């Protein structure tokens, strides 16, 4: 797709129903992101997400999708301690979860794990820039790669992951100009989130793009729907009808 100039559309999914709807929308890739720790579980960060939870959600997304490629995140501390951990846990996501590829965060520091996974037959997507599992190192969800030295570091990280054999790379919250440079420099596709328009693809969290996460509106996000309003409105009508005794009506009743 990169060589043909076709942009890649990736969307997160965490369950079978959303996976089915997003798959039917024409998205190229479904990402079972560890962002589920925040948008599904209600945590402040992605750090509490476990391997068992990632396997569970990956299985649900795989069951719901027919066409799109399913990529699952390796969660915090599933690959950082050792290459053996990375292999075992990526193996679980592929064999038990049923996904077609895994994603892990980090550039130079993760290159050894990426190379070992690729050698073992696991397709890998890298993730550099703002890597949410390192939020405590960054001191918050801040733009990464601003200034020459920081930009050089992100470019080096992206190159390290590509050289290790990753087939794609997520660029998160970096200046658009830096994302353009990285996209030009690498043969593998870049998939941006908060990384401007020059990446080979884009990814958004499904709850964010659909407007379910109404309180979250960073500069990079566009709401394509108002599902938060829809859920409240539809549920309010249901509650009103139950209170009024007008639901269920005769047509909803077995005789
Ligand atoms: O966990 C996630 O959803 C992600 C995307 C935001 C890239 O890593």
**Can you tell me the CATH topology of the largest domain?**
TIM Barrel
Order of helices and strands: EHEHHEHEHEHHEHEEHH
Give the CA-based shape: globular
Give helix % range: 40-55%
Helical stretch count? Answer: 10
* Tally of strands: 8
Strand content: 5-15%
How many strands, which pairing sense, and closed or not: the largest β-sheet? 8 strands, parallel, barrel
CATH superfamily of the largest domain: Phosphoenolpyruvate-binding domains
Mean pLDDT: 98
Q: From the 3D coordinates, which CATH architecture of the largest domain would you assign? A: Alpha-Beta Barrel
The secondary structure category is: alpha/beta
Structure ligands: 3-methyl-2-oxobutanoic acid
Compute the CA-based radius of gyration: 20 Å
User: Low-confidence runs (pLDDT<50, min 5 residues)?
Assistant: none
Name of the top-level CATH class of the largest domain: Alpha Beta
In which order are the strands of the major sheet placed? Answer: 1-2-3-4-5-6-7-8
Task: Write the SSE topology.
Blueprint: E1 8-12, H1 16-24, E2 29-32, H2 36-39, H3 51-64, E3 69-73, H4 83-97, E4 101-103, H5 111-119, E5 124-129, H6 135-138, H7 148-163, E6 168-172, H8 176-185, E7 190-193, E8 201-204, H9 206-209, H10 227-244
Parallel strand pairs: 1-2, 1-8, 2-3, 3-4, 4-5, 5-6, 6-7, 7-8
Helix pairs in contact: 1-3, 3-4, 4-5, 7-8
Highlighted features:
TIM Barrel, alpha/beta, 2 domains, binds 3-methyl-2-oxobutanoic acid, 8 strands, 255 residues, eight-stranded parallel beta barrel
């Amino acid at each position: 797709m990169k060589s043909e100039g076709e942009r890649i559309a990736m969307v997160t999914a965490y369950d079978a129903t959303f996976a089915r709807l997003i798959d039917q929308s024409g998205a190229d890739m479904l990402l079972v992101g560890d962002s589920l720790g925040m948008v599904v579980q209600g945590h402040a960060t992605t750090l509490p997400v476990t391997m068992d939870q990632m396997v569970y959600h990956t299985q649900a997304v795989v069951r719901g999708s027919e066409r799109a490629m399913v990529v699952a995140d390796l969660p915090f501390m599933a690959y950082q301690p050792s290459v053996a951990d990375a292999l075992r846990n990526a193996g679980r996501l592929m064999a038990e979860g049923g996904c077609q590829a895994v994603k892990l965060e980090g550039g130079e520091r993760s290159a050894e794990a990426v190379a070992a996974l690729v050698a073992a037959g696991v397709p890998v997507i890298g993730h550099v820039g703002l890597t949410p599992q390192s939020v405590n190192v960054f001191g918050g969800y801040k733009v990464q790669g601003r200034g020459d030295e920081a930009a050089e570091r992100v470019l080096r990280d992206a190159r390290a992951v590509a050289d290790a054999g990753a087939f794609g790379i997520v660029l998160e919250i970096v200046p658009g100009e830096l994302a353009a440079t990285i996209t030009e420099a690498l043969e593998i596709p870049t998939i941006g989130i908060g990384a401007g328009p020059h990446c080979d693809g884009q990814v958004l969290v499904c709850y964010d793009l659909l407007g379910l996460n109404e309180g979250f509106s960073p500069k990079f996000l566009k709401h394509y729907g108002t599902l938060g309003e829809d859920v409240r409105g539809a549920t309010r009508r249901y509650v009103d009808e139950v209170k009024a005794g007008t639901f269920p009506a005769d047509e909803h009743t077995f005789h």
